[in-house]
Design a protein that fits this description.
Helices cover 57% and strands 0% of the residues. The protein has helices spanning 6-13, 20-44, 49-56, 60-67, 75-84. The longest helix is centred in the first third of the chain and has 25 residues, at 20-44.
């Protein structure tokens, strides 16, 4: 039986980095991680979904959808949720190449 590393298995099953399938997978994985972080922080603060929704100005259902990654979410909403949870958020922006085309 052949053994594969995690990165080899991802390349084989999902696609290599830079392919649309792999990009979609990694994007969805990041959204799922954000949902997990929101849920963990909410529970650490001993808040219900309804209470967090009230702090953010959304309904309980929206918090549930965020935590379960069943909705598209804006950065603004994410920032509002983490602000309500009194949590610090850091974004890392990395430029992938040095060339830019100007139309």
């Amino acid at each position: 039986m052949k053994r594969y590393s995690l990165s080899e298995a991802e390349d084989k099953l999902i696609g290599t980095k830079g392919t649309p399938q792999r990009d979609k997978y990694e994007f969805e994985l990041k959204l799922e991680l954000i949902g997990d972080m929101i849920k963990a922080a909410r529970k650490e603060r001993n808040l219900t979904q309804e209470q967090l929704g009230e702090l953010v100005g959304v309904k309980k259902a929206q918090i549930s959808r965020l935590e379960n990654n069943t909705t598209n979410v804006t950065i603004d909403t994410i920032l509002k949720v983490f602000h309500a949870l009194d949590a610090k958020v850091n974004f890392k922006v990395e430029l992938l190449n040095n060339r830019m085309k100007i139309a």
